[in-house]
Amino acid sequence: MEEFIKFLKERVESYAVLKNEVVSTVVKIVDSKVEAVQRIKETSYNVMVRKGRRFLVSKVYTPEQLREGLGIMDKLPESRIVPKVHELSGERRSVKEDDGILRFMSDTSSVEDFLNSRYQVHGVLSASRFKRELVTSAGFHGNESRTWFQGYMRVRNGQYSGQWAFSSPKYDPEKVKITLNKAEEYASYTERIDLGDGYYDVVLSPMVMANLMMSVSYMASGYSIFTGNSIFANRKPGDMVGSEKFTLMDRPRGEELNSWDFDDEGFPTRDKAIISNGVYETPLLNLEIAEIMGKESTGNAGWIYPRPWTLEVKEGEVSEEGLLSGNVVLLTNNWYTRFQNRADGQFSTVARDAVIVFKGGKPVGTTSRVRIADKLNNIISNVEELSKERYSIAWWDAPLPGVYPYTLIKNVHLSKA
Amino acid sequence: MLAHEDDLLRLTRRFPYSYVETRYHKISSRVISLLNGELLGVYRDEEAGYSVRYLNGPLYFVASRDPDDLRPTTEKHEGWEPGLWDGEPVSGSYSVEEKQKLDSQNLEEKISSLRDISREVLSQDIRSKINNLILTYSESVEEKELVINGSSLISGRVPRVLISFNLVMTGNGRTITAWFELGQSGGLESLNELRVREHLIEKVKSLDHLLQSGRSVSPGRKDVILSSVLSGIMAHESVGHPFEADRVLGREFAQAGTSYMAELGLKRIGSEMVNVADDPTVPKSTGFFLIDDEGVRARRKLLIKNGEPNEFLHDRFTAPRFNYVSNGSARASGFDREPLVRMSNTFFLPGEMSFQELLEDVKEGIFFKSYMEWNIDDMRLGQRYTGLEAYHVKSGEIGEPVLFPILEGTTNELLSSVDAVDDSLQFFPGTCGKGDPDQGIPVWLGGPDMRLRNVPVKVI
């Protein structure tokens, strides 16, 4: 880092160097056996240099690799949007590491203890240590370190399956057990029934919420809004965009994974509601997009592209079971969310694993090959109720960590292939 | 002699196992992005490092930029892999030529060319409004060196050029958000060969026509013609993925999912007209390689032959479970990712009919030229395509655009409905995701225009 700073100080007035070091151990489980153990160390220096309205962003290993770019910077045209550095100096240091996670990183022999199931178990357990160091030309020098423990398990019961996931800042065997239990429970529903195209009252599990709320939050990025690729592009803060029962937070100051104290511009992060009781509160902003929109940064840089950190949907007042008391379809998992139109939120997402049909509060069977084909706006507007219980979820098709309840949504369009 | 041979051989000696791959892998890329003709940003990225994979019960994979970080681990697990196909790894090298070197133009010149294209597109005489055009140029060079079991030395170098554009257009009370990509391996000559300017202008005019003149479509069973854009994504997603042998065996069950070949054991997947290949040796392809990352020579694989399953994609670890040999399908996306069974360039084989002949026999139907959304269930059976540029076909003639028809059905249902394919073959680039940690890998998707009879069409 010192070499980078020395190199840059002599050449440009505005810069930021973000060093990321990630060390991960990833254990892959297939048919209840360990298929692969991966240990990966990734170190990178992400460097932003700016001269007036000209800038370059590089991911390099040595300062010398910046020389060519700096040599031609003056000849570049000016950019429409230019990353900024927050005018804040001083040192920040925050270390939140869990010894249990660090031990698991070097010795994964406890994995087999988690694979005791009546079904074949597939999945991943991973442990990581993240070190993040940011130095800016404003004199800011921040160091943060975190550990992550996360995993997901999918179990097979003949043609039926169930899947669940967890994320935790601490090594927590109980969360692994809950994950396996949830997957087993959903795989145990075995009657097949047919479900045609139509509108249904649907309960989305925290797994599905994790996937869909990731899309909502990236659409709340000021960049997505600025370029018109967002359901928020024609909305303004204060507009009613969802159900009064629906609150979506970005919470980087909590304990969940991907919680950090400062963003990539040296701006302090803060917890914020993107949508509060149905009201659109704020886009996610860095300094440069905030300037274009005439607002303050929300501490979500990303140079040029503001992004969410870690999400939370506010809990409701009923139990998981209470949400299933009527005639509803429970989607326990999904994947492949794709948008037909990002401006109006038209999308579809494919249900996976157990899709359980409840009639009069009783499960009457599971169905397959259905997808939600609706508008994201409808999903958040038709939230009827949420569960008291919430789960910390991050997994392969919903990598942005978050905490979510089960959510009952009225009149959701389902389509079957 | 490989540039990193000493490091790789030293690593090999450090891991005393019967099967050891060592790899140095570097990807250098540069991205230029313009918003409405104005520079949005210039990004440079380099990722380089070493990895070792070895079999000791489970597979073990270690990776770092610094080879001195890489050591065998001492823990013991009962592994899932029963063994591997131990065919002799080959030595050799492969590369793709840059007819016009990527560095033969400086950054200013590249930005200037892209700005000219943007401005020409934005100045088209159309009735709809282009709210935003984000034009992104990406050039990359992937270099890898491998030593397999201390004896086989392999090197590969593939430069690639990709152009993507995101369009937000409004007109006639409608808004479209669309995204397209063009790309191939090679040098700067790719920009002309891919006809970027012409393609973009044609696309803007076509979307304008759609916004202004698009008519709703009635749902029901119809004849459908899929362009190579749609046959390409279908070849990759509905055939290529379920023919990955590791997926059939359940290795991806918790991630990218399973396969109808495992769950249903289908003996016939499509009509006699359906032939699907995966071929890493296609010149200029983004999925090009000649030796895979396990030291096995690459070749064309015919996945479906005349509608019936013919061959899976294999690596050294899946092949013996099928009493087969590896067909050279192992690839890793970067130094920090394990090799997996991957597609390369996957496509429906063309036939002999012309596009006109394909049309002539359609009394009432829809031509899907491009799509704006696609997804599939994790068995690779139930899929859905929402048309973007789509046209009414009546009495063998392409008519007015129709608004957002949806083709939704199962793989075997749709492929059994194919009664003709034309003699064209076009490819489009894609990034294929798989594995954990996730690895996106460059591929081509392609095919001819394809006619499907009496298939279900829905509407939004």
Automatic annotation (TrEMBL), chain B:
Metalloprotease TldD/E central domain: residues covered: 102-196
**Which GO biological-process labels does this protein carry?**
proteolysis
**Molecular function (GO) terms listed?**
metallopeptidase activity
Q: Kindly give the InterPro entries that the UniProt entry links to this protein.
A: Metalloprtase-TldD/E_C, Metalloprtase-TldD/E_cen_dom, Peptidase_U62_metallo, TldD, TldD/PmbA_N, TldD/PmbA_sf
Return the Gene3D superfamilies for the record. Answer: PmbA/TldD superfamily (3.30.2290.10)
Can you list the GO cellular component terms from the UniProt entry? cytosol
Q: Which domain of life is it from?
A: Archaea
Q: Which residue range or ranges hold the Metalloprotease TldD/E C-terminal domain? A: 220-457
**Key words, A-Z:** Hydrolase, Protease
What is one Pfam family matched by this protein?
Answer: PmbA_TldD_3rd
Similarity section: Belongs to the peptidase U62 family.
Descriptive protein name: Putative Zn-dependent protease-like protein
Q: Which organism is it from?
A: Metallosphaera yellowstonensis MK1
